[in-house]
Amino acid sequence: MSTLEVGTISPISGSNDVTLGGSSKNIKFASGTTVDFSTNTPTTTLSATMKMVPAFEAKLSGTQSVSNNTLTKAAFATENFDTDGCYDHSSNYRFTPNLAGKYFVYAQLYVDGAAAANFNDGNAVIRKNGSTIIDGLKNMSNNPPKGMALPVSCVLDMNGSSDYVEIWGSCGDASGNPQFLSGAYSVFGSYRLIGA
User: Fold this and answer.
1) What pTM value is reported for the model?
2) Can you give the CATH number for the domain in which 146 is found?
3) Residue 18 and residue 79: Cα distance in Å, rounded?
4) What pLDDT does residue 113 have?
5) Cα–Cα distance for residue pair 182/187, rounded to 1 Å
6) Residue 151, domain member (yes or no)
7) What percentage of the chain's residues is helix, strand, coil (to nearest 5)?
8) Which residue ranges of the chain lie beneath pLDDT 50?
C-alpha cells in the first residue's frame, strides 16, 4: 500500500468535487485521527438512512370527552411537527411511516374524572395495526385522585407502507363524565431509530 502525503487536496480546475474511494470501497482513518467538521463550517449532507425521520409529534386540540370505562382513540389533532406528512391529524389520528425500520413511539395521555372522589382508573394504550402493544393501566380505586398523566412508550418494527400506530385510552369515573385533557398534558409522537 502506498502513502500519499499532502497538505491540501483541492479539485482540479473546472471541477467542483473531489472524489475519494470508489464503488463498494471504504474510506478509513488512522487510529487517533480527529475528523474536524467545524473548520470553515462545511456543509454535511446526510442520506435518508442516516436521518431519524419520518418523525412527528401531535397534541390534543382541546379536551376530549369520552364514555366511561370505554377504550377510545385519542384525537391528537394538532401537529407540533410532521417531517414527512405521515401522521393523519384530521380523521384517523394515526402514524403510518413511509420508510421501513424501527421506531420509538411515545405518548402521554392525561385521563381526568369529574372530581377527586370519582376517578377510579385509567389507561393509555399504544396500538399497532389495531392490536395492543403497550397498556399503561393505573388503578386508583383505593385512593382516587381527580386524574393522572399516563406515559407509555415502546420500540416498534414498521414496514414503511401499511403498518400504523395509534393511541387509545380510557377513564373509569364514578360520575360518568371522564375526559382526556389537552395542552401540555397529552402528547403523541414517534421517530425512526438509525443504526437499529
Assistant:
1) 0.77
2) 2.60.120.40
3) 42
4) 84
5) 8
6) yes
7) 5, 40, 60
8) none
Count of beta carbons in the 10 Å neighbourhood of residue 65: 10
Gap between the Cα atoms of 120 and 172, Å rounded = 5
- Per-residue confidence (pLDDT) for residue 144, from 0 to 100: 63
Q: Domain range spanning residue 96?
A: 48-192
Is residue 76 in a domain? yes
The reported pLDDT for the residue numbered 71 is 95
Cα 178 to Cα 22, 145, 159, 172, distances in angstroms: 63, 13, 35, 7
Number of domains in the chain: 1
| 3 part of a folded domain | no
Asked if residue 163 belongs to a domain, the reply is: yes
CA distance 87 to 167: 12
Residue 141's pLDDT is what? Answer: 65
